[in-house]
């Protein structure tokens, strides 16, 4: 018998088969529930990760003067990519749209602190969520 911990792939196939056959009494409900919860969490984690990367690159473009000459094109390309990935996640998971602002509020001070280890960021640094997500906005 294939188990959740020893052969995950086989376990998933078995659970799908059991559900399709409506053999609900044989389904590994505890692990299936855990996996479904993790699926939702993984989408939210991906959104958070793209928002973090977006903010990091916007901060680089705004304040990392010593690297700006060499990296601007790359940073802008990355910013565009992160914006597109965020849109894609929201398009496929509309319920996550209301998570964007709370995630941004949580990650903002942390990302500022982390990026200050690389370059100087003024105390009054401000990149709004609206600007960050706007396709046409890039820091000067």
Would you write up a description of this structure?
By secondary structure, this protein is an all-alpha fold. The protein has one domain. The chain is built from 5 helices and no strands. The longest helix has 35 residues, at 29-63. The mean pLDDT is 95.
Key structural traits:
69% helix, mainly alpha, 5 helices, 140 residues
Give me a quick take on this structure.
The chain is mainly α.
Order of helices and strands: HHHHH
Main beta sheet, described? none
Judged by helices, strands and strand pairing, the structural class is mainly alpha
Indicate the percent of residues in helices: 55-70%
Number of helices: 5
| Secondary structure: number of strands | 0
Which segments are poorly predicted (pLDDT under 50) over 5 or more consecutive residues?
none
What's the Cα radius of gyration? 21 Å
Strand fraction:
under 5%
Q: How far is it from the N-terminal to the C-terminal residue, by CA?
A: 61 Å
Give the overall silhouette. Answer: elongated
The tally of structural domains comes to 1
What is the mean pLDDT?
Answer: 95
């Amino acid at each position: 018998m294939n188990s959740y911990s020893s052969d995950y792939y086989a376990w998933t196939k078995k659970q799908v088969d059991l559900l399709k056959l409506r053999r609900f009494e044989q389904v590994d409900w505890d692990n299936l529930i855990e996996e479904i919860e993790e699926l939702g969490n993984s989408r939210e984690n991906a959104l958070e990760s793209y928002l973090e990367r977006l903010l990091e690159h916007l901060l680089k473009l705004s304040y990392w003067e010593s690297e700006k000459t060499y990296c601007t094109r790359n940073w802008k390309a990355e910013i565009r990519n992160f914006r597109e990935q965020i849109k894609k996640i929201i398009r496929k998971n509309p319920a996550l749209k209301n998570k964007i602002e709370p995630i941004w509020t949580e990650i903002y001070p942390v990302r500022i602190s982390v990026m200050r280890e690389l370059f100087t960021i003024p105390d009054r640094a401000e990149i709004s969520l609206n600007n960050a997500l706007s396709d046409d906005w890039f820091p000067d």
